[in-house]
Amino acid sequence: MKKNLNIIIVIASIFTLVIIAVIVVGLTLPSQKETIQGQAEMTDYRLSSKIPARVLEIRVKKGDMVSKGDTLVILDAPDIEAKLSQAQAAFDAAQALELKARNGARNEQIQGAYATWQKAIAGRDVAEKTYSRVNRLFEKGVMAEQKRDEAYAQYQAAIATEQAAKSQYDMAVNGSRHEDMTAARAQVERAQGAIKEVSSYVSETALIATADGVVTDIFPEIGELVGSGAPIMNVSVIDDMWFTFNVREDMLPGITVGTEMDVYVPAFDKSVKVRIERIKDVGSFATWKATKALDKYDLKTFEVQAYPVQPEDLVGLRAGMTAVFEK
User: Fold this and answer.
1) What is the pLDDT of residue 244?
2) 245 three-class SS
3) Which strand ranges, in their side-by-side order, compose the sheet holding 225-226?
4) Which of 45, 300, 307, 321 has its CA 20 to 30 A from that of 37?
5) Residue 163 has what DSSP assignment?
């Protein structure tokens, strides 16, 4: 019995010594660094059509480098071309009306108005002489009063006819009113605006690169019909590049905006110096680390964005490539 007790004491002593040795070794070993992995990101812009059209030509393919101003896609929009023809015809008609209002009546119209006026003058003179004769006969008692009144009415009517003919002649000579010319000019400007509007749509049938970049996605095929605002192509801007790391908040000490550090890019097999420009909350419960069960607190994750100090070091980098650093 005593022998068994001695064995138990020896085993317990050995176990205790092993535990102490593990604790001492653990305290003396340097703390292991934690590797934080991220990836490269680029600003993307999307080419889309302003008008419904059919894809006529795609001049690039995925992975191609494009420069600002390059024509990437050609669309076919016959409806817009028809509207442009209609707008041009409306403009020509408005110009003709404005020219007519500006030039006034034709010479033939002026001559016709003048002849009508002269005819009215002759009629007035005849009516005046007739009234004078009838009035003298009435005063002598030879002519009835009714005849004199009829002659006077005809004379007054002749005067009114002559005045009306004179007004028509003056209007022909003076041309269109200012209001008519203003209205005609407004019609021309309206037609010009319609042409500019439709022409802007026509220019949208050629989609152009707005910045240097690399084509990452092409959605439709040649011959497909695309609607207004439908995405056609994605282009990543190679001059706007950064790294994104998701860092747990207990790893944030020492990581602040403005801090420079080295990150390793496996695709280039080299380290690149970057500067932290932005730290923001990821805002998703999926990035929390639950530790409350251990009488601690939940740990959130923050997105750290770091930009290269020397962008030329990352020539050839593509979105999605891995980058790591140790903390």
Assistant:
1) 92
2) strand
3) 206-208, 71-76, 53-58, 225-226
4) 45
5) H
Cβ neighbours around 96 below 10 Å, total: 12
| Residue of 239, 315, 206 lying closest to 44 (CA atoms) | 239
Indicate the domain borders of the chain.
Answer: 31-74+214-326, 82-200
271 contacts 264 by C-beta, under 8 angstroms = yes
Six-digit token string for 166: 């004179």
Q: Is the pLDDT of residue 40 over 80?
A: yes
Region for residue 283 given its phi and psi (left: phi exceeds 0; alpha: psi -120 to 50; beta: otherwise): left
pLDDT at 86: 78
Mean pLDDT of the chain: 78
Partnered with residue 36 across adjacent β-strands are 325
Q: Which residue has the tokens 């019995």?
A: 1
Long-range contacts made by residues 285-289, C-beta under 8 angstroms, separation at least 24? 287/246, 289/248
User: In the prediction, which pLDDT does 233 show?
Assistant: 92
Of residues 93, 90, 109, the one with CA closest to residue 176: 109
Q: How far is CA 66 from the centre of its chain?
A: 21
Taking the CA atoms of residue 210, residue 211, residue 212 and residue 215 in that order, the dihedral angle to the nearest 10 degrees is -60
Are the C-beta atoms of 215 and 234 separated by less than 8 Å? yes
Encode pLDDT of 84-102 as tens digits. Answer: 777 787 777 777 776 766 6
Cα of 238 vs its chain's centroid, Å:
23
End-to-end, the C-alpha distance of the chain in Å comes to 56
Rg over alpha carbons for the chain, rounded to the nearest Å, is 48
CA distance 24 to 97: 103
Instruction: Identify any residues that bridge with 58 across adjacent strands, giving them in sequence order.
Output: 73
Instruction: Give the burial class of 238: count Cβ atoms within 10 A of its Cβ; 0-12 exposed, 13-18 middle, 19 or more buried.
Output: buried
